[in-house]
Amino acid sequence: MVLLRLSWKDFRSRPLRTLLTLSSIVIGVGAVVAVSLAIENSRASQRSMLKAVSGRTTLEIQAEGGSPFDSDVLKDVKELPGVQLATGLIRRYSVMFFSETKKVKVQYLGVDPTLDREFREYRVVAGEPLTDFDQVLMDKGFANSLGIELQSIVKFSTQSGLRQATVVGFIEPQSGSSVLQGGLVILPIQTAQKWSRAQRRLDLIQVLADEKADTALLAEKIREKLPEGIRAKVPSLRSELGNESTVTMEQGLRLATAFSLVIAIFIIYNTFQMNVGERRRQLGILRALGTTRNQIVQMIVGEGLLLGIAGTLLGWTIGFFATRWLSMTTSNLIEIEISSDHLAWFPFFLAGTLGIVVSFAGAYFPAMRASRLSPAEAMRVVASGELEPSNQLLAYLGAFLSTIGITVLLLCILGIIHINHAITGCILFLLGGIVALPTFLEQATKLVLKCFGGLLGVEGRLAQRQLLRNRGRTSLTIGILFIAISTGLGMACTILDNIRDVKRWSEESLVGDFFVRATMPNMATGQAADMPKGLADKIKALDGVRLVETLRFVSARAGENSVIVVAREVSSRDRKLFDIVHGDAEGIFDGLLKGDVAIGSVLAERAKLKLGDDLTLETLTGPVSLKIVGIVNDYLAAGVTVYMNRKQAETLFNVEGDSVIIVDTEDNKTADVRHSLHAFCDEDGLILQSQSDLLKLVREKVDGVVSGLWVVLALCSLIAAFGLVNTLTMNILEQTPEIGMLRVVAMTRMQVRRLILSQALLMGLIGLIPGVFAGLFIAYVLSLSLLPTTGHAVTFYFRPWLTIGTFLIELAVVIVASLLPAERAARIPIVKAMRY
User: Fold this and answer.
1) With contact defined as beta carbons under 8 Å apart, do 559 and 679 qualify?
2) What's the average model confidence in pLDDT over 805-810?
3) Is 393 helix (H, G, I), strand (E, B) or coil?
């Protein structure tokens, strides 16, 4: 109990340092919770939508490319032995209008109301079941979030125009396995067929097998009855395309989290090492009074665990609220609807464990060091063994860790191991440099003094002596600065390189005077809401329209890969179509006209395809081999895309409708065409955008990422400042008698300030200069390691303004962080210093 009171007294006597230590734990724990929950929410949102559609389904039957097929297939399936129930579905994306100005993207599901409850486990909690054609059911939570009430009239953008329906009931899932994605609306299948102009056709058949039926054998029997181009499969619980679209972002989030935890360990260790040094006399007195070494360890480690628990609780809270912002940012960036309401226990458990383990590790080693001091040694200000020599073993260990890190990064670049291990490689590489630093600290300080000795003067040499007095603490502080700048600069370069790649893709691929669409295509799956049929022909007939091209996105399979086929009208040789990685514009244009294809770079990398190879697609007429005439950079559907001529897609996949209509106008009639297009769009609830509007939308999305980048850089600088203030404060305490002696022999207060500033500059320059090169190296290897994901090398650009600016900002942080400790040292009374 006495030791506990001493710990509490120590916390209260140093509130700022306690707050800084607590903050480092909060940052690390909060980052783990926010990132882990955001990633889990992204995946859960995809799973819940798929589960909401598939329900208890044993098998799904669908045409290649997802095109509608004859409803007579359902009759043949129902008659097969082993089939308990079978039902048809119409599944389409749409825009739902629920007020004069409000709209939201939804997926509507046309079902047989008499059978649907056998497949999807939900109950009507308000209103009534479907009884008439123009009625819909809606998830209660989704409706409440939009302010929609029973009997509200809502409108949907469909292939037959803008259609309205009445919300007659609210539903809730009956079990956790049937969680409904908010944007799912259920309506009678006859209504959905009418809206989508798919009378007597189905998008999907769901099969519920008998309990004793063999699923694999039943699937084989069903395939024997199916026409060519229609297949039966087990429902997927995770969208492959959605997974690929979030890999790069997940990688960046994990990298930031890992570095925040590493820095937190250094901060905590440095703080407790400093606390032990300041309390040396207190610990010596306790040892003299009979306190055992184990009790000393338990007291210091207990303080660390107490801070760890408090930091974990605060980190959980901050991480929970940060998850909503992170999920929203991710959703806006990659066009995936992500719910932030999914709370998994594992991210909290993982973050809590890491927070406590980090706190324990940060406090344990200083505690062990303190417990080994005898009472006589502890009563001294500077222990005799504290003038640490260099250790060659540390140099070897550092070289080993850096070598392992570089090897891991190389294996990621070659695609031999998963890209997630690139984070481990980066951390090992940086840790290796920090571990080896004490061995070369003396040489490093001499080199800095040789370069800047004239500027630092005699204060610089005195500063060097103090830094070498405790190599461990000095190396840790330099390590924090090293990690801060290398992490910040490396992430900045990587993010800016990827943003530059996205902007180039948008400028090369999104070419046209106007774009007409119902919604922005989903960046994960390529799915877009339906637009009225025949709209493109109406636009072509407008006066002043020079050219109209349409895009339609179709899901398909190429071997083991799920792909998005982009059916595009190819009508103008002068128009830019792609951001080309391999091939040339003329060859791609001619090839598409002949029936060849261009593919996304991610698909090319994954399937190991190159120019001139054949790509085999599963189509309505069976497997078809198509020659690859171009490989293009593509951020639609995670780059797993296949571009082909619209006419060919109509033959192979029975493509209907349009996802996007691209309009070019005559030079002097742009304003007139815009006015006419506005009339069409207002009538059917569509979106009209000019090319500049669309590019602005892309820029706004990536600018949000850049804003987050500057927050990360500011956080890195703040953490580095924490570590520097801690070390300088400890150095001042140890130098107090020396400062008093120097003041006696006429050292001025200004010279004392320069002494402390020199210590800060020495540590800053030793940590920041190598950190700049390490950051550039990390950015370069990360761009290479993303090759298996992006399918093409994201070009690394050296940005002098960013590199120099980051270095100067971090150096300014070092100087500013040293001002308070320097002023504190300068104001120590000479008599007090001599008596200390």
Assistant:
1) no
2) 86
3) helix
Q: Please compute the mean of the pLDDT values over residues 754-777 and round it to a whole number.
A: 88
In this structure, the answer to whether residues 655 and 598 fall within a common structural domain is: yes
* 419 shares a domain with 376: no
Residue 58 DSSP label:
S
Last residue of a domain, one of 323, 353, 386: 386
| Residues 357 and 326 placed together within one structural domain of the fold | yes
| CB distance 558 to 681 below 8 Å | no
Whether the CA torsion 463, 464, 470, 473 is positive or negative: it is: positive
Compute the distance between CA of residue 576 and CA of residue 584 in angstroms, rounded to an integer.
11
318/711 Cα distance (integer angstroms): 16
Structural domain that includes position 472: 404-507+700-836
Does the structure show a pLDDT above 80 at 828? no
3-state secondary structure (DSSP) of residue 803: helix
Domain finish residue from 386, 412, 441:
386
Mark residue 608 as left, alpha or beta (left: phi above 0; alpha: psi -120 to 50; beta: remaining).
left
**Cα 607 to Cα 469: distance, rounded to the nearest angstrom:** 58
As a whole number of angstroms, the distance between CA 10 and CA 30 comes to 26
Q: What are phi and psi of 615, to 5 degrees?
A: -105, 125
| Long-range pairs of 210-216 with CB within 8 A, sequence gap ≥ 24 | 210/82, 210/83, 210/84, 211/84, 213/58, 213/82, 213/83, 213/84, 214/82, 215/58, 215/59
Residues paired with 205 in a beta bridge: 61, 88
Q: Is the pLDDT of residue 317 over 50?
A: yes
Secondary structure (H, E, C), 279-344: CHHHHHHHHHCCCCHHHHHHHHHHHHHHHHHHHHHHHHHHHHHHHHHHHHHHHHHHCCCCCCCCCC
Please list the alpha-helical segments (H only) found in 578-690: 585-594, 601-607, 646-653, 670-684
Q: Say how far apart CA 300 and CA 75 lie, in whole Å.
A: 75
- Please check whether residue 484 is in contact with residue 810, taking contact to mean a CB–CB distance below 8 angstroms: yes
Phi/psi zone of residue 597: left (φ > 0), alpha (ψ -120 to 50 degrees), beta? Answer: beta
Q: DSSP string covering 666-722, please?
A: -GGGHHHHHHHHHHHHHHHT-EEEEHHHHHHHHHHHHHHHHHHHHHHHHHHHHHHHH
b/e burial code for range 67-84 (CB count within 10 A of at least 16 → b): bbbebebbeebeebebbe
For the chain, give the longest Cα–Cα distance.
105
Q: Are 223 and 74 in contact (CB under 8 A)?
A: no
Report angle CA 348, 350, 354 to the nearest 5 degrees: 115
Percentage of the chain modeled with pLDDT above 90:
8
- C-alpha to C-alpha distance for 414 and 786, rounded to whole angstroms: 10
Asked if 351 and 293 sit in the same domain, the reply is: yes
Q: Which distant-in-sequence residues (6+ apart) come within 8 Å of 163 by Cβ?
A: 134, 155, 156, 195
Cα–Cα distance measured from residue 355 to residue 350, given in angstroms and rounded to the nearest whole number: 9
Q: What is the pLDDT of residues 242-295, one digit of tens each?
A: 444 455 555 555 666 666 666 666 666 766 666 666 667 777 777 777 778 788
**Residue type at 717?**
S
279 and 180 in one domain? no
Local structure of 665: helix, strand or coil: strand
Cβ pair 595, 535 in contact under 8 A: no
